[in-house]
Amino acid sequence: MRRNLLERMSLRSLRRLVGSLPRSKCTPLQICNFEHRFLSVVAKDSVEQERMLPSELAARYVESLMKRSTLQVETCGKSKSDAVNISVYHDREEESDRKLIAQVKKVFAKEHVNLSPWGSSAKKYQEIFCQHVASLLAHRLNKLLLEPRARLVQNFMHDFTLSEGEVMERLRYISNWAQETKTLSDANSFLDADISLLDEQAESGEESLHSALDMNSDPLLVAGEVMTSPIVKVLWRILHSNEGFMALLFLRGTLSLNRNVVTLQGSSGRQLRYYVNEICERMLQSDLLCFESGSLESNGRTLMFTLNDWREEWGIRHTMHDLVDRLYRGYRFYNLKHKLNPSYSLGTLHLHFASNVPINDESILKTTVSCMDNKNKKLPEPVAIINHVRVRSFIGGLGMEQRFINHIISTELRENFKYFGDVYTLSPMPFFVPWLFHQMKLYSKVIQGDEWDKLVLTSRDAAIVEDILNWLKNSTQDSHRVSQVAQLEQKLLHGKETLMKLASYFLLNERGRRMRCLDSVARIHFSNGAELYRINFMADLSRRRLRQSLGITVNYRYRQEEQEKNMLRFYDETQSLAVAEEASRLQQLANMVYPRP
Length: 597
What we know:
The chain is an alpha+beta fold. It has helices at about 1-20, 30-50, 55-70, 80-105, 120-140, 145-160, 165-185, 195-205, 210-215, 220-225, 230-240, 245-255, 265-285, 300-315, 320-330, 365, 400-415, 430-445, 460-475, 485-495, 495-510, 520-525, 545-550, 565-570, 585-590, and strands at about 290-295, 330-340, 340-355, 370, 385-390, 425, 530-535, 555-560. The protein has 3 domains: about 1-15 and about 25-70 and about 85-185 and about 210-285, Malonyl-CoA decarboxylase, oligemerization domain (Butyryl-CoA Dehydrogenase, subunit A, domain 3), CATH 1.20.140; about 290-390 and about 400-425, Malonyl-CoA decarboxylase, catalytic domain (Aminopeptidase); about 430-590, Aminopeptidase. The chain has 25 helices and 8 strands. Helix 3 (about 55-70) packs across helix 6, helix 5 packs across helix 11 and helix 11 (about 230-240) packs parallel to helix 13 (about 265-285). The protein is globular, with a radius of gyration of 32 Å. The termini are far apart.
């Protein structure tokens, strides 16, 4: 009874509002349609009062999501009657979950679009629901192991991803909406009826707001709201919780570290990877990042992050004593952190000044000098060396390495150390040996290549490479040492011409499937405006470097006056990658290799 009374009162107020617009050219049909829509919204709002609270719906949904992600029903070893009971119980649970998911999807129905600055019950319900789901998900994601976390992600995406049919329906909805609102706006039927309200807001210091009808009749605003995926609305609100940023990084790490576990196919996988990358990139590019300079006074957690990253890239034999020894000699390291979680290091970078450009990590102690203490004008000016840069896997591919390097060059070196010279790197080439193995498979026709995967080995090259790779496998079987080092070195020296030619081609001319430059480390530096300075043959004969690049290391050089131009060259497919004048021979070697028919 009370609801009917409210609806009649709303109808009277609506007719009174429409009747107060004598300038309007609305037809009776248009007025009736508008009345029907208005009453529909009133009816929906009244029905929503009887629904459970958004926090309750969010709690039930996340509980269902966790149950589907972590609970596995075991029927083995049960009696027949027990198995039947379990099956019936499982069916009931599935039916309950389907009803709950259907109720959740109604929250994001396209009819709930309302861009009014004053809001609506449906929109506010959606906002509160998304906030609670996001907060609960952030808490759960950080505590789950990889496999249940992957199942949770899959179930969440399955529940919230718009199907192709729903997307097309929403596009038609926008088109119809635009046509109707254009007709009504041409008729001047939607005008601010109460200008005094806006005047009062202006006098009280509040910002003047456009009318709700005016904003809801804008096709661009409506299209943006209708086509915004529910996934985005939840993911953005995850950031509002204290655990949210790390939860998104763990989510991104789940997508990248174990693709056999995460089987997101089609639009679900594409949308999740796109939205998570976009959100993480915006957050990381904001002012929430901080670059912390490390020293002997740094806390133990920071030192351990630095040591572990250093060992991961340059050898597991390094100890904390080695790191402290380098710090005493003027070695510097920096940590990339986020202000929401300052105790966790997102990346590390090592810097030192040297009398010449080193060819491996062990030669750093022999070349390290102090930039500030070099008063002898007869000695050459020291050069800045970045010999290690590494970020966590869950922020890889977002340009954080480039931003880290640029911060060191522009802020630390230029402003703090007053160093304006060239900056060099000591970099590994981690995928050269895997690429050689792949080339041998193509040569022996174990696999068939495609347009992105072409054979470049000649018969002579293949014979040399096969011999070296066989010796490599035999020499590095022991995980702690390299056996038959002298014979392996002899093999490498015998094939130096071939290996240098293939290494130059691999760095400068070999392409990946999605981006120029197959080698990931080379891609970081070339895309950031560096130039290839030197390839060091047999520079590091440790087991790790032999298995990655046959002992080859690489030096890149950053020149401030050339960095921007080199950066553009990387993204211009018609131009070759930047090579220093001192390394022009490497470009010639690379051009000697070409795909075989």
